[in-house]
Amino acid sequence: MKQRILTALVVIAVALGFFALGDIGFMALIIAVLAFAAYELYSLIKSQVKPIIYPIMLVFMIATPFMSIYNLVSLICGLFLVLALLMILTKWFTMDIMSLIFIMSTLIMMAIYSAVNLFMQFGYLAFFWILVANYLTDTMAYFIGVKFGKHKMIPSVSPNKTWEGALGGYFGGLIGSLVFGYFLDFDYEFIILASLLIPIVAQLGDLFFSSIKRQYNIKDFGTLLPSHGGILDRIDSLVFSLLLMMLLLNVWGIFL
Questions:
Q1: Angle at the Cα of 37 (from 232 to 208), degrees rounded to 5?
Q2: Taking CA 197 as the corner, what is the angle to CA 199 and CA 74, rounded to the nearest 5 degrees?
Q3: Which helix (H) or strand (E) holds 103?
Q4: pLDDT tens-digit profile of 43-53?
Q5: Which of 206, 144, 209, 208 is nearest to 175 (CA)?
Q6: Which of 63, 72, 93, 118 could, after both became Cys, cross-link 97 (CB 3.0–4.6 A)?
Q7: pLDDT of 209 strictly over 50
Q8: Distances from the Cα of 243 to the Cα of 54, 109, 113, 215, 224, angstroms
Q9: pLDDT at 256 exceeding the cut of 70
């Protein structure tokens, strides 16, 4: 428990240090996260693919933040699809591996695209809002689950997650999101809607990534963060939360 808390404090301090550097620091942090995420994803499948897959994944991942800045979405997505087709035709790996790479890479890349857009259009406080809501959900789910958890959710996917923990995580994320969101320059109706949904989607993201780990019989994606696992273990729920925000902001802007 102490190691887990200490690691979390170090991660927060490092992240705040990057944010203190402004736009450059934010982009540097994003690129570092993407580099580690690409490595952890490659490590999961490296025994079944050619070594060149890692630098290819790394290039596409790191290119993601620049899609927003230089409007390269269509170009990068097109290249990604063409490269995927070539890899299939040349039989670099099986369709199962291709599906995993495509799904995971797409989820992470679109989440980062959402994060960069959120930061550029609404500022760092809007991005912090998502972080606060997301990690309060994770933290409260963990502590409530440890203290009061009795009824397992989906043991075959995540043996330690309980309904009590999920409920605690939901209300922790909801309350934190509503309080933090009050100080943002968004319609409060939007804040309420997002706050109601983020804790649900965050936990679905956690379960989705857990299902990948169960499939490959691993406990964590990496060992970079003691007692937390790897980068993918820390951004699993955040990925889904950022995708939700991209959807909500577009729908809100178009229809409301």
A1: 35
A2: 105
A3: helix 95-122
A4: 988 888 778 78
A5: 144
A6: 93
A7: yes
A8: 24, 10, 9, 24, 25
A9: no
